[in-house]
Amino acid sequence: MFDPDIAPSGTLLGLLQRGRGDGTLHALAAPRTEALAALNHCVLRDPRRDWQLENRSLYYARLYVDLDGGLGEIEQHLFHPDDLLETGEERTGLALAVLGHLASYGREDALALLRRYAARGGNWSWALDELALRDDDAGLLALGEAVLARFPHTPEGESALAAAVRDAFEPRPWRLWEDDPHAPALGARVRAAREQGSFDRWQRQLRPSGPRPGWSVREVLDWAQQGLDQHPTQHRHVPATRCLTAVAGPEDRGEIIEAAAFGQEAARATALRYLAEHHDPQALDLIETAAGDPAELVADAAVTAFERMRSTAALERARAWLTRTDALGAAAAAMLACRGGEYDSPLVLAALREAVRVSGCDAPVLWDLVDGAGRMAITCAAPVLRHVYRETSSSHLRGRAARALAATDPSFATGFAVECLWDCEESTRELAAHHATTADARVVEQLRRLAADPAEEAEVQTAVRSRFEPDAPAV
Question: Which InterPro entries match (predicted)?
């Protein structure tokens, strides 16, 4: 994961990078060349903090349609010489996903560009997945020879082909090539690769390398520790915890507590998680000690073990740990936000304000604190929530802030809910569809557009249609 360079939230580029609804509204009101320059900047330099989690492609594709934007800069980016050197999906994934949505909107130039890239580009598998959803059989069949030519007729090439067939997100192109009567040689090769992938999976199932029935507690802990000595390193403390649950009995408690206090890194992490999941009376004291351990694996395991606890004792300890400035203090604040009672509202509000003041609007702990402010309906948290909504670069956190504002801010329906109808996240658009006031003409027009857009998510369209029912409540 990388840290993108995000422009200030008050600029057109900053709004578009964040995927805010106001980004679309400002782009449509700005000079077209300026709007297209900002849009291309976003698509070619992915602004998402987590490109595998946050949505932007449909948001940007809709803006390309509204601005009638050309695809010349995307084409130059895809076929730049860097494409042969930087093979990571994050370099071209967003551009390819945008092209996929544009193809679904009937842009033939986007479809042609996807076909060219699938035949020649470095991230060809992503382009092929986009085409599998949107291209016709003839277009996909025409790509078969070019795609299979990537894999030489060598043992290594055939192995790579088997992996590509096995791991394909969308199997449709491979099935078409396998059954193509006009290219029997290609079909035979794809069929052999598919069978090889199935055989490899079967062989792996016959050679399990993990714990066996009858293992002792010591053997499970040793197995977890052995993973750290391998190259590449294998972090086994999570599966080892499940194994420990299967083999440990009451008579093993002393050995597990000793491992949690004095064991090696992976063994200690395994024992801490086990004791926390079984609500052992000593778990919280051991977690408190381990949270300050210099070994990152042990400290992280201690915090994670505490986050997973659901006991009353853990909640009481969270109140005591709230003033800590380390990861355990953040976990304590998150636990109170998620599970605390109404009397914990002042503590959650104070933690929310402190997190924003000290760590900014992208602090990881804000996800739970923002949810907690909404769950507890802390109305005086609305100013902080509005600040988080405007400034965070995470579209998911912004959506959580919007949900919290819906529960705490009386002006949400006429304010942020309106722009949320154009947001990049479908869950945020769904929220807006339920809350945005229909007294605003822009709202009614956008609701109708979302209802008619075949690319829109079903949940959003269901929420939109509920607003047009005869007995729908007026906002």
Answer: ARM-type_fold (IPR016024)
